[in-house]
Amino acid sequence: MYEGRFLPDPKGNFYKKYSYHMFQSGEKWAFILCPKTQAFENYCPVCSVTSKLYQGSPADKRMAGSYKRKDKFVSNFLVVNDPRDPERDEEKRVNGVVKLYEFPGKVEMKLKEEITDVKNGYGYKIFDPSEEGHNFILKVLATKKDQNGNVWPDYSSSTFSRNSNSIGTDSEIDALMKTCTDLDEYINNLAVSEERMEEVLKTEMVWDMIASEWAKVRGLTEEKEEKPEIQAPALQEDIDDSVWDKSDTDTTDPVESEDDSKPWVEDDKDLEDEDLLKELASM
Q1: Which residue intervals are annotated with compositional bias (Basic and acidic residues) in the record (predicted)?
Q2: Domains in the chain and their CATH numbers?
Q3: How many angstroms from the chain centroid is the CA of residue 152?
Q4: What is the DSSP letter of 149?
């Protein structure tokens, strides 16, 4: 059981959603931030490859399953209690530290339920660092085996604390809030270049499926950049409804990150649900 407090970023964003592709390419894991994260109408070469493979043979469909787009949520999260902390070296302990918590849609549903349940929910107090805020109690159990013998993480027992409490004194809160990460900046830093995406797709030997298609898209993009249109000022975005870490500087190439099993992200780029179960089994 883990406990912590969700906190807003410097811009007031409570959490953000991003889409990505992650699959094993050779001996390494390829991580590609899906361009549809910024706008769904954006062209994504990996999404296009996936769509084409789904129309092919059973083997193609299996390959498409590994390439398909996935969603993840990220938020600033103050770690109140990580039961593994006593086993860590002092410099690696996380209790009392604001980390970036990346979580699946099942956890995001827990947040939405609290926000939208006007009668019984805590509303946006779940992000409040003051005495009116509520901690999140994360419990990751395992489901029963499905027909294929697979087990999956079960977050149904996760909940928010009934008792509200402050995460510290006013000065301590100010200090902690200054350590929160800009979520937009964090997600943007996950992006890789078009050249890198091309390299990965060539390694996977699927480049020819979308080469001409992508060339046309690139041509249109370059043409628009040469002749920019005058646009109306953008309106301030509402909070994204669509939330431990990468708050430390990470120089690892996100395309080549290996899949390291931890219940939440610390230095690896992503975790699949199955990895949470592996970690729980080893605890």
Answers
A1: 220-229
A2: 2-208+240-282 (3.90.198.10)
A3: 18
A4: S
